[in-house]
Amino acid sequence: MNATRTVACLIYPDVMSLDVTGPMQVFASANVEQQRQGLPQHYKLLLLGASVGPVATSAGLQFVADASWVGCDPAALDTLLIPGGFGVDTQKRDQALLDWLRFAEPQVRRLGSVCSGALILAEAGLFDGRKATTHWADLAALGEYPAIEVQGDRLHTYDPADPQGAHLFSSAGVTAGIDLALALVEADLGRARALAVAQRLVMFLRRPGGQTQFSTLLTAPNGSVARLAALLEWIPGHLGDDLSIEALATQAHMTPRTLCRLFSQETGMGPGQYIERVRLEAARNLLLDAQASIATVARLTGFGHPENLRRSFQKHLSVSPREFYQRFG
């Protein structure tokens, strides 16, 4: 077993709290799983600020910096994470910080960003000639750095099979930092340990980095201003509810006729087809990581009976749920 690895996360005024706590909790939970197996903790967690002491996040909560990056020896760090938040613009103008990041980059084993933290590393020039992603709302800002190959359709760019992608990487918005951290844990401790952490954190699955930030079902293909946006965001969390046309129309505060017309215009399919596709996508994701039995998956995703789930799989994928799991799960 390797020696304890120090994972450090930068904090600064108006940092996004979840960009910090999400990934760091993954590493902390990995330590818990290690202890459950009678093994020593694998990670030492460290918060780095401009100075030691409390730092106010954008949520109004305060974090406490364990050490100052000013006097920190990067060679003592295994992994360094740069989170995003409202305070990113100020950090981009901090030349001392940018110089320290350039100094630290070749000395740490892994350097990555969470959410808009990518803009700090971009300003330091560390993503020049590389692929990078960030929160969808900041993709245009990242695109202002012409030397960066911006990838807006993925959750993170970490790739343990690629020496460059395993060393310097980025992740998309907020919770994608958790997916990134799980990928790092998997590279360090194996897939079984990463899945145990995901289960401990009550996550349905560990999403691969190449997965798009959005489900294709939740975006209007014609690029119009979607009047259905609120409804489309509501549907995935209520797959087990009554999602009849009448119920959807009531939720969207419009008539069933208007609802059907807008669905056709903005999604290219009727409400019933759309609901089935969303339920099918949710069921596929659950089966991919074997998070539940087929009967439970059918119930959770609104298909009700496993036979309804089987028919949908056969119709759209030409394979049964069981065969799908055996091939891809």
From TrEMBL:
Q: What is the top-level taxon of the source organism?
A: Bacteria
Sorted UniProt keywords? DNA-binding, Transcription, Transcription regulation
Q: Which CDD domains match?
A: GATase1_AraC_1
Reply yes or no: does the keyword DNA damage apply: no
Q: Which Gene3D superfamilies match?
A: 3.40.50.880, Homeodomain-like
User: Mind telling me what this protein is named?
Assistant: GlxA family transcriptional regulator
The yes or no answer to whether the keyword Transcription regulation is present is yes
Q: Which SMART domains match?
A: HTH_ARAC
User: Where does the record place the HTH araC/xylS-type domain?
Assistant: 229-327
One family name in Pfam for this protein: HTH_18
Instruction: Kindly list any coiled-coil regions of this protein.
Output: none
